[in-house]
Amino acid sequence: MNFDFSDDQKMLKDQARKVLADKSSTKAVRAVLEDAGTSFDAGLWSAVAELGWLGVSIPEEYGGLGLGKLELCVLAEEMGRALAPIPFSSTLFYFTEAVLLAGSEAQKQAVLPNVAAGAVIGCFAVSEGPGAPSPATLRCTFDGAALNGVKIPVTDGDCATHAVVLAKEGAGVSLALVDLNGPGVSRKTVKTLDPSRGHAEITFTNAKAERLGPAGEGWDIAERVLDRAAVLTAFEQIGGADACLEMAVDYAKNRYAFSRQIGSFQAIKHKLADMYVANQVARSNAYFGAWALSTEAAELPLAAAASRVAAIDAYHLAAKENIQAHGGMGFTWDVDCHLFYRRAKLLAVQGGAAPVWKEKLVQRLERRNAA
Amino acid sequence: MDFNDSPEEAAFRLKARAFMEKTCKPKGADKALAQELDGKEFLAAAKAYQKKKAEAGFAGITWAKEQGGQALPPIYSVIFGQEESKFDAPAGPFAIGLGMCIPTMIAFATDAQKKRYVGPALRGEEIWCQLFSEPAAGSDVAGLKTRAVRDGDEWVVNGQKVWTSGAHYSDYGILLVRTNPDAPKHKGLTMFFLDMKSPGVEVRPIHQMSGGSNFNEVYFTDVRIPHSQMLGAEGQGWNVALVTLMNERLAVGGSPGPDYAEIMDLARRLPAADGQSPLIKDQAFRAKLADWYVKSEGYKLTKFRTQTALSKGETPGPEASIGKILTANGLQDITNAAIEAEDHYGIISDTALAPMEAVFQQSYMWAPGLRIAGGTDEILKNIIAERVLGLPGDVRVDKDVAYKDLPTGR
Questions:
Q1: How close A135 gets to chain B, by Cα (Å)?
Q2: Predicted confidence (pLDDT) at residue B145 exceeds the cutoff of 90
Q3: Among the four A18, A81, A255, B69, which has the fewest Cβ within 10 Å?
């Protein structure tokens, strides 16, 4: 039994934590959050590219480091802990995974080395309006060459150079790979709950695009991309949830009320213990997801759903109860609690919200039982 | 990451499985055994089983060789436990003695005493119980009242213990008592071991709300214990007790009853609230099912992480402490939902009438006990908060006050 990360992976994690503590302080996060004109921290993005992290799980033949998905998981956790204001997840968990899964050799050669170098910023454009998308409700269309329609919101869509877009093609659904700086693409920044990450409304008007993967298989490929992103995002969420718990613990040790540390009150202790339990449940499920992802195991769909449901719950609990533990201070702009509260919500809905994933989980459980 | 045993672990697991296949029937195959719980035949079967375990080298797996153990790292204990749990093995009566009492004896008894008591316990010839909790000292066990007064070479004990598992069939017990009421409560305690057949010891079963009787009250009336049976020094009982309780968390665990799979099974056969579709198609039910699955898997996988730490020779992380909070509360939730799903019929607990032999009804009545036994939810959360998260201890109003001057309430 070795249900843990390797020493090398843990070293990478330590390195990431140190680098990000320095380069992605909450001051840096706020610089993006508080400036409506800035959608990501370009300096941090270059630094992350130079460290090789953008290519960590991209195969060497495409310019990456060729390490595995477990390395990407540990980086994801640290990105979450540091609230890194960069399009790391959109580029790697969604866009790159889609290209790796469905891209042609030529597409991989064209895109992946540039991802690893930090020159391509990717995004994954699915949502078109309120409510979970389905093949029946998609309105964006693709004819094999041109893309039409509106995607909103697209996380990191305002700073991305490329997008993978889910669109109707005839009676089916396909994925399209599109250069966002090409003709026929217009973008508008969208105001969201988490401005530490840029969001866009992207309008395609006969935009030139290539098919990614076979025609009509877009929905199935997207589901597989979402499973992979669910596991990776779960680590990002756990990093954030642990940071919230640590913040709350630190505050509870140093804040005095009724002439004692508030952390000596059981009402606070039990709240923080509940957060700890939820974080551990999320971590254990995510480890299994990581194992399934890294080995391409048949368990991946169910493990991904469990990872996602547990991580959404844990981060939600940790982010809201961190504010509560801070009392009135926690409700101020100046204290960092709200940065996590915002990011927790973004990560809870990007890639599909909890109700959708709980339904997926049960369907997959039923499928497993039937097998 | 992988889920494989090391070659040594795999070899040990094979040996353990072969032993279990030879010795016991697979889980659920032997209904009579489960129903005979606490009966004389069950106890005889349990003792015979423990003897075979000791002879085959599967008892005291982590104990030193001079104590009759195998001197193996804790991971081997976990592996044996995993294999044992797949069978109807009557190991229950020895869990507390071998898990908590004898390790305390090994730490504090004299060599002659260890020689006399450890072997017979290991071979299942003698059973031990743990006498700590009292009617007025549960979570706050250091507030216990049972008094021991020295009389020459003996101590005379008067008082009452409660929630003592297996007291009615135990041969010996370890007993925490108050020897100095003038000292603050943690400092006036002393630990002894005693013969449960001593004159003045009276064991009465507790009738639980679930209907059964798995625990006892134990009354002490002028019970005489030789001074030589003191464990640790006089007044050091609390420190000795901490050693006993440290072993408790490793001794408790496992799945306590019906889980997501069982209620999923039930939901296929029952109607949803709309009266049309089966419950398994009901969205609200499915969302809850997902939550139960995530928690159940979370617990199972957390144990894998603990096992990994043990396998690497590391001390298991604090994640080991979350298990009972998850399983006990999960059990209460799932059984409640199952009964509600059965609607009015859910009140029936007759095993011949209720779905799935009334497993949900029975566990519903057992779940409240599980949330209390071996540390309440609240105490476990205090432990997580203080020992794992490093939060300050509660303000102790009783820290420097003589025990006899403490307010007691009812």
A1: 20
A2: yes
A3: A18
